[in-house]
From TrEMBL, chains A, B:
It comes from the Bacteria. Keywords: DNA-binding, Transcription, Transcription regulation. The keyword Transcription regulation applies. GO terms for molecular function: DNA binding. The keyword Transcription regulation applies. This is TetR family transcriptional regulator. The lineage of its organism: Bacteria, Bacillati, Actinomycetota, Actinomycetes, Kitasatosporales. Residues 29-48 bind DNA.
């Protein structure tokens, strides 16, 4: 019985993550979550107070995953530019968009401070992490001493997020790569010879 | 009578533009459009075949406005970098997001080639326009001869779109300015002394 409960709860969370990514908060009904999870209404309300609690759990898990996957490239050996390049150019489901970034276009998520918090925290973390790597590269003499790590990190995260926007508009993942390669070219001109 | 018709049609289009920006396609019901426009159901269907036709008209008008407003800075006198800076840093309703860029996160708009077309065309135009300005700056000797105009233009448009994402996540327009200033600093390091 315990195992069955755990599985249902897991299926509800994973279904909510998928639906939030595909349809957004307003487009994700409790009924759609139950159908995708293969769970009844009673079962859903046994595990969660409702769609809001499920969405919060789902968003937090997606945010945790995103950080863990980013660390795979960001904490790897190499120069600052090599680590940033590996992170920006790693395999992504570009046309589906960023599961965290997309939530910023979701009016119900943005209007709710509790649901917005994990989205905000993810970007605060990512900007800080990239700024640290850039500062490290600058201090090691790999990058131009005049480079501003915080401003550059924000620009890089913005290119990543905007790259998804351009790719979706054109229905072509190529546009993401063009934008990312474009900012990496600007950044590589700040490396010291 | 004719004037009243024109006004109702205009009110329906403008109400649809606002609602698409605030709520997205799925969150915009024909009833909500009618209520905001102060128009009855019969009146709406007298002017438009339905929500789809109204949305297409609204998106096209928003795209035309965006181009016209971009040209104010982009066709002004100055160096390539000055014109780009003026465009990127002009007054914007940052926390509302880009009325065109936001549509890329709207699953119903992206799934519909007719509604996606004006979104795609707007970004194709903007990337091309910025690439031309950068190429002009390079040919005039203002910018580094090795600069890739197309890739750089895509990165700049991506920063603009990603800047909205970061600002909305943090509920602070400041983040947009940090990202945009960050890419301008990278670009200004490519100017020739």
């Amino acid at each position: 019985m315990y195992t069955a409960w755990v599985n249902t709860s897991e299926r509800l969370i994973e279904s909510t993550r998928e639906l939030l990514w595909e349809r957004g908060y307003v487009g994700t009904s409790p009924k759609a979550i139950q159908q995708r999870a293969g769970a009844g209404q009673g079962s859903m309300y046994h595990h969660f107070a409702g769609k809001h609690e499920l969405a919060l759990t789902a968003i937090r898990r997606t945010a945790d995953d995103m950080r863990a996957r980013a660390e795979e490239q960001l904490s790897a050996p190499g120069t600052a530019l090599e680590r940033l390049t590996a992170y920006l150019l790693r395999e992504r489901d570009v046309l589906k968009g960023c599961p965290i970034g997309r939530l910023t276009q979701d009016p119900d998520v943005m209007a709710d401070p509790v649901l917005r918090a994990p989205v905000d925290e993810t970007f605060v973390w990512l900007r800080g992490r990239l700024a640290d790597i850039l500062a490290e590269g600058r201090d090691r003499g790999e990058l131009d001493a005049a480079l501003d790590p915080a401003g550059t990190a924000s620009a890089v995260v913005a290119v990543l997020q905007g790259g998804y926007v351009l790719a979706r508009a054109a229905d072509s993942a190529e546009l993401f790569h063009t934008a990312v390669t474009g900012v990496l070219a600007l950044l590589s001109s700040r490396t010291t010879p």
